[in-house]
Amino acid sequence: xxVVTVLRAGTFLYHWTQTRWYFPDHLSEPIMNxxxxxxxxxxxxxxxxxxxxxxxxxxxxxxxxxxxxxxSGPDSQRFLQGQLSNNLDKLKPAQHHLSTACTPKGRMYSxxxxxxxxxxxxxxxxxxxxxxxxxxxxxxxxxFKSEQSIDTSLVALGLSGSxxxxxxxxxVGNTPEGDSAIKVEESAWLLSVPGTCERYELWLPANxxxxxxxxxxxxxxxxxxxxxxxxxxxxxxPELLPEAVEQYIPQHLNLPTLNAVSFRKGCYTGQEIVAxxxxxxxxxxxxxxLTAHSAVELIxxxxxxxxxxxxxxxxLYAVTPADANQTELLAIIRVEAAEASDVHLxxxxxxxxxxxxxxxxxxxxxxxx
Length: 369
Prior knowledge:
- By secondary structure, the protein is α+β, with helices and mostly antiparallel strands.
- The chain has helices at 37-44, 76-81, 130-140, 165-172, 209-216, 225-235, 271-280, 335-340, 363-366; strands at 4-8, 11-16, 20-22, 31-32, 59-62, 66-72, 96-102, 108-116, 121-126, 147-150, 154-161, 181-184, 188-193, 198-205, 221-222, 285-292, 303-305, 311-319, 327-334, 352-354.
- It folds into two domains: 38-282, Gyrase A, domain 2 (2-Layer Sandwich), CATH 3.30.1360; 284-359, Elongation Factor Tu (Ef-tu), domain 3, CATH 2.40.30.
- The strands form four sheets. A six-stranded mixed β-sheet has the order 12-13-14-11-5-15. Strands 7-8-9-6-10 form a five-stranded antiparallel β-sheet, covered by helices on one side. A five-stranded antiparallel β-sheet has the order 17-18-19-16-20.
- Residues 1-32 have low confidence and may be disordered.
Protein backbone atom coordinates (compact mmCIF):
# COMPACT_ATOMS: atom_id res chain seq x y z
CA UNK A 1 0.00 0.00 0.00
CA UNK A 2 1.31 3.44 -0.95
CA VAL A 3 1.34 5.93 1.92
CA VAL A 4 2.21 9.60 1.53
CA THR A 5 2.76 11.57 4.73
CA VAL A 6 3.01 15.34 4.60
CA LEU A 7 4.55 17.41 7.36
CA ARG A 8 3.84 21.07 7.85
CA ALA A 9 6.06 23.10 10.17
CA GLY A 10 7.10 19.87 11.82
CA THR A 11 3.51 18.85 12.55
CA PHE A 12 1.61 15.93 11.03
CA LEU A 13 -1.03 17.35 8.72
CA TYR A 14 -2.44 14.45 6.72
CA HIS A 15 -1.57 11.24 4.95
CA TRP A 16 -2.90 9.40 1.97
CA THR A 17 -3.24 5.69 1.45
CA GLN A 18 -4.29 4.53 -1.98
CA THR A 19 -7.93 5.36 -1.38
CA ARG A 20 -8.36 7.87 1.40
CA TRP A 21 -7.18 11.09 2.93
CA TYR A 22 -7.11 11.22 6.73
CA PHE A 23 -7.02 14.43 8.75
CA PRO A 24 -6.02 14.55 12.42
CA ASP A 25 -8.16 17.43 13.64
CA HIS A 26 -11.24 15.34 14.46
CA LEU A 27 -12.85 15.77 11.07
CA SER A 28 -14.57 12.50 11.94
CA GLU A 29 -14.49 10.69 8.65
CA PRO A 30 -11.86 9.79 6.08
CA ILE A 31 -12.00 12.09 3.09
CA MET A 32 -12.44 9.89 0.04
CA ASN A 33 -11.00 11.28 -3.15
CA UNK A 34 -8.84 9.34 -5.54
CA UNK A 35 -9.66 11.46 -8.58
CA UNK A 36 -7.47 14.43 -7.75
CA UNK A 37 -5.19 13.08 -4.99
CA UNK A 38 -1.89 14.47 -6.28
CA UNK A 39 -3.43 17.83 -7.11
CA UNK A 40 -4.99 18.11 -3.65
CA UNK A 41 -1.73 17.10 -1.95
CA UNK A 42 0.25 20.00 -3.38
CA UNK A 43 -2.38 22.54 -2.29
CA UNK A 44 -3.12 21.08 1.14
CA UNK A 45 0.55 21.49 2.06
CA UNK A 46 -0.21 25.22 2.16
CA UNK A 47 -3.30 24.94 4.39
CA UNK A 48 -3.23 25.65 8.11
CA UNK A 49 -5.36 23.89 10.72
CA UNK A 50 -8.79 25.21 11.61
CA UNK A 51 -8.81 27.56 14.60
CA UNK A 52 -11.39 29.66 16.41
CA UNK A 53 -9.16 32.71 16.07
CA UNK A 54 -9.37 32.52 12.26
CA UNK A 55 -13.01 31.49 12.09
CA UNK A 56 -14.31 34.71 10.52
CA UNK A 57 -11.09 35.81 8.83
CA UNK A 58 -11.00 35.76 5.02
CA UNK A 59 -10.24 32.10 4.31
CA UNK A 60 -10.49 29.50 1.58
CA UNK A 61 -10.90 25.78 2.10
CA UNK A 62 -10.53 23.01 -0.44
CA UNK A 63 -13.64 20.88 0.07
CA UNK A 64 -11.89 17.59 -0.48
CA UNK A 65 -14.79 15.32 0.42
CA UNK A 66 -17.19 17.00 -2.02
CA UNK A 67 -18.49 15.14 -5.05
CA UNK A 68 -20.92 15.97 -7.83
CA UNK A 69 -23.75 14.08 -9.47
CA UNK A 70 -25.06 15.45 -12.76
CA UNK A 71 -28.63 14.79 -13.88
CA SER A 72 -29.38 15.73 -17.47
CA GLY A 73 -31.87 15.08 -20.23
CA PRO A 74 -35.24 16.52 -21.32
CA ASP A 75 -37.18 14.85 -18.48
CA SER A 76 -34.67 15.67 -15.72
CA GLN A 77 -36.76 18.26 -13.92
CA ARG A 78 -39.92 16.15 -14.01
CA PHE A 79 -37.98 13.10 -12.84
CA LEU A 80 -36.29 14.88 -9.93
CA GLN A 81 -39.53 16.59 -8.92
CA GLY A 82 -40.89 13.16 -8.04
CA GLN A 83 -37.81 12.16 -6.02
CA LEU A 84 -36.49 15.19 -4.16
CA SER A 85 -37.93 17.06 -1.20
CA ASN A 86 -37.77 20.55 -2.64
CA ASN A 87 -39.86 22.09 -5.40
CA LEU A 88 -37.92 22.00 -8.64
CA ASP A 89 -40.73 23.72 -10.51
CA LYS A 90 -39.67 26.89 -8.70
CA LEU A 91 -35.95 26.43 -9.32
CA LYS A 92 -34.91 28.67 -12.19
CA PRO A 93 -31.68 28.40 -14.18
CA ALA A 94 -28.68 29.66 -12.18
CA GLN A 95 -30.50 29.09 -8.87
CA HIS A 96 -29.69 26.60 -6.14
CA HIS A 97 -31.07 25.26 -2.89
CA LEU A 98 -30.59 22.46 -0.39
CA SER A 99 -32.58 19.31 -0.98
CA THR A 100 -32.82 15.68 0.08
CA ALA A 101 -33.69 12.28 -1.34
CA CYS A 102 -35.55 9.88 0.92
CA THR A 103 -36.55 6.26 1.14
CA PRO A 104 -40.30 5.40 1.09
CA LYS A 105 -40.07 5.52 4.91
CA GLY A 106 -38.93 9.15 4.78
CA ARG A 107 -35.34 8.42 5.80
CA MET A 108 -32.68 10.39 3.93
CA TYR A 109 -30.24 8.42 1.84
CA SER A 110 -28.85 11.64 0.38
CA UNK A 111 -28.77 15.39 1.04
CA UNK A 112 -27.09 17.96 -1.16
CA UNK A 113 -27.00 21.43 -2.65
CA UNK A 114 -28.79 21.37 -5.99
CA UNK A 115 -27.88 23.82 -8.77
CA UNK A 116 -29.83 24.33 -11.97
CA UNK A 117 -26.83 24.83 -14.23
CA UNK A 118 -28.95 25.48 -17.34
CA UNK A 119 -27.70 22.37 -19.16
CA UNK A 120 -28.12 19.97 -16.21
CA UNK A 121 -28.88 19.72 -12.51
CA UNK A 122 -25.75 19.47 -10.37
CA UNK A 123 -26.04 17.80 -6.95
CA UNK A 124 -23.13 18.61 -4.63
CA UNK A 125 -22.80 16.16 -1.73
CA UNK A 126 -20.37 14.17 0.38
CA UNK A 127 -18.47 11.83 -1.93
CA UNK A 128 -19.46 8.86 0.17
CA UNK A 129 -23.08 9.36 -0.90
CA UNK A 130 -22.50 9.49 -4.64
CA UNK A 131 -22.76 5.81 -5.54
CA UNK A 132 -25.87 5.12 -3.48
CA UNK A 133 -27.56 8.29 -4.68
CA UNK A 134 -26.87 7.45 -8.32
CA UNK A 135 -27.98 3.84 -7.89
CA UNK A 136 -31.17 4.66 -5.99
CA UNK A 137 -32.25 7.48 -8.28
CA UNK A 138 -31.50 5.21 -11.23
CA UNK A 139 -34.15 2.75 -10.06
CA UNK A 140 -36.81 5.44 -10.56
CA UNK A 141 -35.38 6.89 -13.80
CA UNK A 142 -36.28 4.07 -16.20
CA UNK A 143 -39.43 5.80 -17.46
CA PHE A 144 -37.78 9.18 -18.00
CA LYS A 145 -35.43 10.59 -20.60
CA SER A 146 -32.84 11.42 -17.97
CA GLU A 147 -29.28 10.38 -17.27
CA GLN A 148 -27.34 10.43 -13.99
CA SER A 149 -23.55 10.51 -13.96
CA ILE A 150 -20.89 11.20 -11.36
CA ASP A 151 -18.96 14.26 -12.55
CA THR A 152 -15.34 13.70 -11.54
CA SER A 153 -14.15 16.81 -13.38
CA LEU A 154 -15.48 19.23 -10.75
CA VAL A 155 -14.03 20.29 -7.40
CA ALA A 156 -15.22 22.81 -4.81
CA LEU A 157 -13.64 25.66 -2.87
CA GLY A 158 -15.23 27.31 0.15
CA LEU A 159 -14.63 31.06 0.57
CA SER A 160 -15.57 32.66 3.87
CA GLY A 161 -15.04 35.64 6.14
CA SER A 162 -16.50 38.88 7.37
CA UNK A 163 -16.85 41.59 4.70
CA UNK A 164 -15.37 39.57 1.84
CA UNK A 165 -17.99 40.56 -0.74
CA UNK A 166 -15.98 43.45 -2.17
CA UNK A 167 -12.86 41.28 -2.38
CA UNK A 168 -14.71 38.60 -4.34
CA UNK A 169 -16.24 41.22 -6.62
CA UNK A 170 -12.75 42.43 -7.52
CA UNK A 171 -11.52 38.89 -8.18
CA VAL A 172 -14.57 37.49 -9.96
CA GLY A 173 -16.36 40.57 -11.23
CA ASN A 174 -19.63 40.02 -9.35
CA THR A 175 -21.18 38.23 -6.38
CA PRO A 176 -24.40 36.20 -6.23
CA GLU A 177 -27.20 36.99 -3.80
CA GLY A 178 -29.58 34.65 -1.98
CA ASP A 179 -30.23 31.45 -3.91
CA SER A 180 -28.71 32.73 -7.13
CA ALA A 181 -25.45 31.57 -8.70
CA ILE A 182 -23.25 33.26 -11.25
CA LYS A 183 -21.21 31.67 -13.98
CA VAL A 184 -17.51 32.43 -13.82
CA GLU A 185 -15.37 32.23 -16.96
CA GLU A 186 -17.95 29.99 -18.70
CA SER A 187 -17.04 26.81 -16.83
CA ALA A 188 -17.27 27.55 -13.08
CA TRP A 189 -20.09 28.53 -10.74
CA LEU A 190 -20.02 30.84 -7.71
CA LEU A 191 -22.81 30.28 -5.17
CA SER A 192 -23.73 32.26 -2.08
CA VAL A 193 -24.38 29.93 0.88
CA PRO A 194 -25.72 30.81 4.34
CA GLY A 195 -23.67 31.15 7.50
CA THR A 196 -22.85 33.46 10.40
CA CYS A 197 -20.34 35.24 8.14
CA GLU A 198 -20.28 35.70 4.38
CA ARG A 199 -19.73 32.39 2.57
CA TYR A 200 -19.44 31.34 -1.04
CA GLU A 201 -18.74 28.08 -2.84
CA LEU A 202 -16.80 28.02 -6.09
CA TRP A 203 -17.50 24.92 -8.19
CA LEU A 204 -14.88 24.64 -10.90
CA PRO A 205 -13.09 22.19 -13.20
CA ALA A 206 -10.15 20.56 -11.44
CA ASN A 207 -7.70 21.68 -14.12
CA UNK A 208 -8.50 25.30 -13.21
CA UNK A 209 -7.97 24.80 -9.49
CA UNK A 210 -4.22 25.65 -9.29
CA UNK A 211 -4.70 28.97 -11.09
CA UNK A 212 -7.68 29.92 -8.93
CA UNK A 213 -5.85 28.84 -5.78
CA UNK A 214 -2.88 31.10 -6.57
CA UNK A 215 -5.22 33.96 -7.41
CA UNK A 216 -7.38 33.62 -4.31
CA UNK A 217 -4.62 33.02 -1.75
CA UNK A 218 -3.49 36.61 -2.21
CA UNK A 219 -6.64 37.61 -0.31
CA UNK A 220 -7.76 34.43 1.49
CA UNK A 221 -5.84 32.34 4.01
CA UNK A 222 -5.76 28.65 3.01
CA UNK A 223 -7.22 26.56 5.86
CA UNK A 224 -8.16 22.88 5.95
CA UNK A 225 -11.70 21.73 5.25
CA UNK A 226 -12.37 21.39 8.97
CA UNK A 227 -12.56 25.21 8.98
CA UNK A 228 -15.59 24.97 6.66
CA UNK A 229 -17.07 22.33 8.96
CA UNK A 230 -16.63 24.66 11.94
CA UNK A 231 -18.60 27.32 10.07
CA UNK A 232 -21.34 24.78 9.30
CA UNK A 233 -21.40 23.80 12.98
CA UNK A 234 -21.61 27.42 14.11
CA UNK A 235 -24.48 28.11 11.70
CA UNK A 236 -26.14 24.70 12.37
CA UNK A 237 -26.23 23.79 8.69
CA PRO A 238 -25.78 20.01 8.81
CA GLU A 239 -24.24 17.88 6.10
CA LEU A 240 -25.35 14.28 5.73
CA LEU A 241 -22.37 11.94 6.05
CA PRO A 242 -22.27 8.30 4.94
CA GLU A 243 -22.45 7.20 8.59
CA ALA A 244 -25.92 8.77 8.89
CA VAL A 245 -27.53 7.40 5.73
CA GLU A 246 -31.16 6.31 6.30
CA GLN A 247 -31.01 7.23 9.99
CA TYR A 248 -32.92 10.52 9.87
CA ILE A 249 -35.88 12.25 8.32
CA PRO A 250 -35.23 15.82 7.05
CA GLN A 251 -36.68 17.43 10.19
CA HIS A 252 -34.00 15.84 12.37
CA LEU A 253 -31.42 17.94 10.52
CA ASN A 254 -33.63 21.09 10.61
CA LEU A 255 -33.82 20.96 6.81
CA PRO A 256 -37.38 22.33 6.44
CA THR A 257 -36.18 25.45 8.26
CA LEU A 258 -33.23 25.63 5.85
CA ASN A 259 -35.61 25.62 2.84
CA ALA A 260 -34.69 22.09 1.78
CA VAL A 261 -38.27 20.75 1.94
CA SER A 262 -41.47 21.88 0.26
CA PHE A 263 -44.74 20.74 1.83
CA ARG A 264 -46.89 22.13 -0.99
CA LYS A 265 -45.19 20.60 -4.04
CA GLY A 266 -47.07 17.32 -4.04
CA CYS A 267 -45.81 13.76 -4.01
CA TYR A 268 -42.23 12.54 -3.95
CA THR A 269 -40.68 9.39 -2.53
CA GLY A 270 -40.99 9.51 1.27
CA GLN A 271 -43.28 12.56 1.20
CA GLU A 272 -46.11 10.97 3.20
CA ILE A 273 -43.91 10.28 6.24
CA VAL A 274 -42.12 13.64 6.09
CA ALA A 275 -45.38 15.56 5.75
CA UNK A 276 -47.11 13.58 8.51
CA UNK A 277 -44.34 14.36 10.99
CA UNK A 278 -44.52 18.06 10.11
CA UNK A 279 -48.30 18.19 10.44
CA UNK A 280 -48.28 16.39 13.78
CA UNK A 281 -45.60 18.74 15.12
CA UNK A 282 -44.30 16.04 17.44
CA UNK A 283 -40.62 15.87 16.50
CA UNK A 284 -38.72 14.90 19.64
CA UNK A 285 -35.14 15.32 18.39
CA UNK A 286 -33.35 17.75 16.11
CA UNK A 287 -29.89 19.11 15.29
CA UNK A 288 -28.00 21.39 17.68
CA UNK A 289 -24.56 22.94 18.02
CA LEU A 290 -22.79 21.59 21.12
CA THR A 291 -19.46 22.45 22.69
CA ALA A 292 -17.49 19.88 24.65
CA HIS A 293 -15.31 21.82 27.08
CA SER A 294 -12.25 19.67 26.53
CA ALA A 295 -10.73 18.18 23.42
CA VAL A 296 -12.45 14.82 22.96
CA GLU A 297 -12.63 12.47 20.00
CA LEU A 298 -16.22 12.21 18.87
CA ILE A 299 -16.81 10.12 15.79
CA UNK A 300 -20.18 10.07 14.01
CA UNK A 301 -22.87 8.16 15.92
CA UNK A 302 -21.11 8.50 19.30
CA UNK A 303 -23.93 8.16 21.83
CA UNK A 304 -24.78 11.05 24.15
CA UNK A 305 -26.76 10.75 27.39
CA UNK A 306 -28.48 12.92 29.97
CA UNK A 307 -27.40 13.15 33.60
CA UNK A 308 -29.45 10.05 34.43
CA UNK A 309 -27.53 8.02 31.84
CA UNK A 310 -30.40 7.74 29.35
CA UNK A 311 -29.40 8.01 25.70
CA UNK A 312 -30.65 11.30 24.26
CA UNK A 313 -28.99 11.29 20.84
CA UNK A 314 -25.77 10.95 18.90
CA UNK A 315 -23.00 12.94 17.26
CA LEU A 316 -23.38 13.93 13.62
CA TYR A 317 -19.77 15.16 13.30
CA ALA A 318 -17.22 17.11 15.31
CA VAL A 319 -14.14 19.31 14.92
CA THR A 320 -11.47 20.15 17.50
CA PRO A 321 -9.93 23.57 16.70
CA ALA A 322 -6.15 23.73 16.81
CA ASP A 323 -6.11 26.68 19.23
CA ALA A 324 -8.66 25.55 21.83
CA ASN A 325 -9.04 22.78 24.37
CA GLN A 326 -12.60 22.11 23.26
CA THR A 327 -14.53 20.28 20.57
CA GLU A 328 -17.34 21.76 18.50
CA LEU A 329 -19.99 19.42 17.15
CA LEU A 330 -23.38 18.98 15.62
CA ALA A 331 -25.55 16.37 17.27
CA ILE A 332 -29.09 15.07 16.91
CA ILE A 333 -30.45 15.15 20.45
CA ARG A 334 -33.75 15.28 22.32
CA VAL A 335 -35.25 18.75 22.37
CA GLU A 336 -35.82 18.71 26.15
CA ALA A 337 -32.17 17.76 26.75
CA ALA A 338 -31.02 20.61 24.52
CA GLU A 339 -33.23 23.13 26.28
CA ALA A 340 -31.86 22.02 29.67
CA SER A 341 -28.29 21.68 28.33
CA ASP A 342 -28.39 18.21 29.87
CA VAL A 343 -25.85 16.45 27.64
CA HIS A 344 -23.13 14.06 28.73
CA LEU A 345 -20.64 11.62 27.27
CA UNK A 346 -20.85 8.14 28.82
CA UNK A 347 -17.90 7.36 31.12
CA UNK A 348 -16.47 10.85 30.57
CA UNK A 349 -16.93 13.89 32.80
CA UNK A 350 -16.39 16.44 30.02
CA UNK A 351 -19.05 19.17 30.37
CA UNK A 352 -21.16 20.09 27.34
CA UNK A 353 -23.12 23.22 26.55
CA UNK A 354 -25.80 23.58 23.88
CA UNK A 355 -25.86 26.79 21.84
CA UNK A 356 -29.20 28.41 20.97
CA UNK A 357 -30.22 27.74 17.40
CA UNK A 358 -29.21 30.68 15.18
CA UNK A 359 -32.56 30.58 13.38
CA UNK A 360 -36.19 30.33 14.39
CA UNK A 361 -38.07 27.07 13.76
CA UNK A 362 -41.70 27.70 12.83
CA UNK A 363 -43.31 24.39 11.93
CA UNK A 364 -46.59 25.97 10.78
CA UNK A 365 -44.87 28.53 8.55
CA UNK A 366 -42.75 25.79 6.99
CA UNK A 367 -45.92 23.95 5.94
CA UNK A 368 -46.77 26.86 3.62
CA UNK A 369 -43.59 26.52 1.56
